[in-house]
UniProtKB/TrEMBL annotation:
Keyword Transferase: yes
Homology family: Belongs to the acetolactate synthase small subunit family.
Keywords: Amino-acid biosynthesis, Branched-chain amino acid biosynthesis, Transferase
UniProt protein name: Acetolactate synthase small subunit
EC class name: transferase
Residue span(s) of domain ACT: 29-104
EC number(s) stated in the UniProt entry for this protein: 2.2.1.6
Function text: Catalyzes the conversion of 2 pyruvate molecules into acetolactate in the first common step of the biosynthetic pathway of the branched-amino acids such as leucine, isoleucine, and valine.
Length: 186
């Protein structure tokens, strides 16, 4: 038996249902509106851990007290096919009302809050304060030997501030995770 495949043709098999999808890993921000009841977060997290999907950032807060609804913002990475699987599986959980992929639905705003404890005296202390001013970081606690800075911004801004504080005596970091909303009327 001979198999004739023309140059440039795409193989179709049960494992390659969407051959046009890229194999590159992409970062996506998902907004999931759920019932605010015990065990919901565990079910959502269980979906990720049970299938080996990674969560880069996770924030949860009640958004409608009377309607008993919470919003879970998840930042995850995967191929386009994996992201589609995650969204489909999230949508099948009974207590999930809406799943929005903010990355593909249009422009969105992402912010994160972080606290940085930086130990330093002398020139390092002066340099830490100078950089904090450039990043519009607030000093929320100060001793003679350390500062706690508060930084709000994109995850990239938070990462950049951390990178600059490491050589100056960064001791500890606490991050809230990403909060995100779509822009405009959508």
């Amino acid at each position: 038996m001979s198999l004739n495949i023309e140059k440039g043709s795409t193989s179709h098999s049960a494992y390659n249902l969407r051959p046009d999808w890229s194999e590159t890993v992409e970062r996506h921000t998902l907004a999931v509106v759920v019932e605010n009841e015990p065990g919901v977060l565990a079910r959502v997290i269980g979906l990720f851990s049970g299938r080996g999907y990674n969560i880069e950032s996770l924030t949860v807060a009640e958004i409608d007290h009377e309607g008993h609804r919470s919003r879970i913002t998840i930042v995850t990475s995967g191929t386009p096919q994996v992201i589609e699987q995650i969204k489909a599986q999230l949508g099948r959980i009974v207590v999930v009302h809406d799943v929005h992929d903010l990355t593909v639905e249009g422009a969105s705003v992402e912010r994160e809050l972080a606290l940085f404890k930086v130990k330093g005296t002398g020139d390092k202390r002066v340099e830490a304060l100078r950089l904090a001013d450039i990043f519009r970081a607030s000093v929320v606690d100060s001793t003679l030997e350390s500062f706690v800075f508060e930084v709000t911004g994109t995850p990239e801004k938070v990462d950049a501030f951390a990178d600059l504080m490491r050589p100056l005596g960064l001791m500890e970091v606490a991050r809230t995770g990403v909060a995100a909303l779509s822009r405009g009327h959508g």
